[in-house]
Amino acid sequence: MTKQHANWSPYDNNGGSCVAIAGADYCVIAADTRMSTGYNILTRDYSKISQLADKSVMASSGFQADVKALQKVLSARHLIYQHQHNKQMSCPAMAQLLSNTLYYKRFFPYYAFNVLGGLDSEGKGCVFTYDAVGSYERVGYSSQGSGSTLIMPFLDNQLKSPSPLLLPAKDAVTPLSEAEAVDLVKTVFASATERDIYTGDKVEIVILNASGIRREYMDLRKD
Amino acid sequence: MFRNQYDTDVTTWSPAGRLFQVEYAMEAVKQGSAAIGLRSKTHVVLACVNKANSELSSHQKKIFKVDNHIGVAIAGLTADGRVLSRYMRSECINYNYTYESPLPIGRLVVQLADKAQVCTQRSWKRPYGVGLLVAGLDESGAHLYYNCPSGNYFEYQAFAIGSRSQAAKTYLERRFDNFMGSSREDLIKDALIATRESLQGEKLRSSVCTIAVVGVGEPFHILDQETVQQLIDTFEIVKEEEPPAEEAQPASEQDAPTDQTSGADQGAAAGDQGGSPMEI
User: From start to end residue, where is composition biased (Low complexity) (chain B) (predicted)?
Assistant: First the structure.
């Protein structure tokens, strides 16, 4: 007698891709705005990006209901932190909080694939990449979501430092200028949109630097 | 109030129908340094007197931000006040999480009052020894509430609690009719003058008082020392005579050369058009 399998799943995958790139004094976080289920599009205009603190921005793909819940939990925790410490959370601190929050639901995970980008306490760009249960690492660039298999090799080609023996932290920050990084992100999404059916419509690009936060949008193919 | 045989437990009534422990808790509020609140249609201002125990220590934090639209000033056992502020912050965060909208201040003060009431009806607890002036905004405008250890709460146009608050209350009673229509600046000025009344003779400087404001379009925040000192100077609030070389002030103080008592100051209040209160 074969094991009975569930005829209902608590999860759904709403698709989409996220990317983040860290620079010397900036960080670029981007995600497409398409929300889908199965072969259908739910909306072409949904933001997967959330600003958790002054200098921390998170982009998450996966199951958007879980993503929304995760964003709310982190928001509330950040408020508590501010009340207790009288200041905003730093990006590395938020990174640890996100990891702990994800692992807290180790046995009923948030179906969320996150990249956290921001500026560290020295003002340098930082990117943290996660799996669904909170395993994380500081890197110079990362992508998550349905298009990540297409995007990541391309980012490696463009951004990865030649020596594979260097610790990630060493090539953590790309020598690209902010404008070049934004351009790279646009290129990357345009390419991913061609072959990944779940990525398209528009890309929302958030740029964090010393002067604050900026948002840009670029149209993508809608098919 | 004197010691009697009915004041040991909070769960013991006196024959006259009083709970002495609760009343003693309210006495504790009177021992704390003064806290003052006043409100207009669109703004609420909280002010408090900051007295450090000694020159070596820093002063107690008496005003807490609870949420963007709510703040609280306390008088009495500041430790109890801190704990209650944490509770209020937590309630606001949880409400916001569930309903994605700010907790109406009217609900918060009821929850706070109920929490205080519990401590008046458990033999293993004691009442909170702190009075709270809760200032906040909701859809119907600006509000100021007073929560006391007994579990009662009242809404006020203006109020003062703590030691020497009666002087501030007297000033506020004279002026409160105008508050509803007051501008933000006038409200702050009245708060500063009321605070000065509570200081009773001591010079009003930004180092002895804290001011916080919340209003429509203005999240709750505590004004920084420089701003407060500038406001004190702008309003040319005259202090009672102090030797001018007493302390070195970073901001310039414009001391009126004449020696005016606070009584004469009150007399000029009726003719106040936002100018110097000292004009006679």
Answer: 246-271
